[in-house]
Amino acid sequence: MAMFMFPILVLDSSSDWDIISAVLLFRSLNVEVKPHIASLKFEKRVKILKEIINFIESGGGYAICLYANLRQLVKFYKKKHSKQKAWSIAMREQLSRIKLHLDSKGFSYNSIYADTEFSFFENDLKTVFKTRKIYFGKTKYIIYADAIAYLNYKFPKLMRGKKNIKEF
User: Fold this and answer.
1) How distant is the alpha carbon of residue 67 from its chain centre?
2) What CATH number is given to the structural domain containing 24?
3) What gap in Å lies between CA 11 and CA 1, rounded to an integer?
4) Among 79, 114, 115, 136, which is least packed, fewest CB within 10 Å?
5) What's the rounded Cα separation, in Å, for the pair 163 and 68?
6) Start-to-end Cα distance in the chain
């Protein structure tokens, strides 16, 4: 198990931007899955999901699952802004919710690892989280946020009642 000098923030989305998951990692497991957890065979998927939930619950991380409904927000903002600007405004609004929650808990981080779909929002990530250390792609850390987004999309009841996993 690797410890980080500073926690890292990992971001992923699910269900066409309906859900954004953010996982603050204090350390990491030796789990690596590419490209997505949903692509695994059922038995392996369940094993990894349980491992990640247990890891987060044991203090290895802190997870947030945000019901973003980004496409709905974009439709609303497109009435007054261009499509690109509407996406940016909607994303900044949702990222700010994540940041405010992490700040209220006293968490800090010095870098962000985000799945590739977030690369379009690089400037928004830099603005909201006030860091230049942002990495995109299927890194070994994305599996944590991917698992949380997947669980919340497919099996939301499994997430309820967990002390280190918050939904809003």
Assistant:
1) 11
2) 3.30.420.10
3) 21
4) 79
5) 21
6) 29
Residue 7 belongs to domain spanning:
2-167
CA dihedral 28, 33, 37, 40 (to 10 degrees): -140
Integer CA distances (angstroms), 72 to 49, 57, 128, in order? 29, 32, 21
| Calpha distance 48→27 (Å, rounded) | 16
Both structure tokens of 88: 């940016």
Q: 115 near 146, Cβ under 8 Å?
A: yes
Most confident among 22-31, 106-115, 153-162 (mean pLDDT): 106-115
The tokens for 4 are 């980080």
Total domains, the chain: 1
The C-alpha angle with vertex 70 and arms to 112 and 95, in degrees rounded to 5, equals 30
C-beta of residue 10 within 8 angstroms of C-beta of residue 138? no
| Cβ count near 47 (within 10 Å) | 13
Structure tokens at 127: 């603005």
pLDDT, averaged across the chain: 89
Burial of 56-89, coded b for 16+ CB within 10 Å and e otherwise, reads: beeebbbbbbbebbbeebbeebbeeeeeeebbbb
Range 43-51 average pLDDT: 87
Give, for 35, the enclosing helix (H) or strand (E).
none
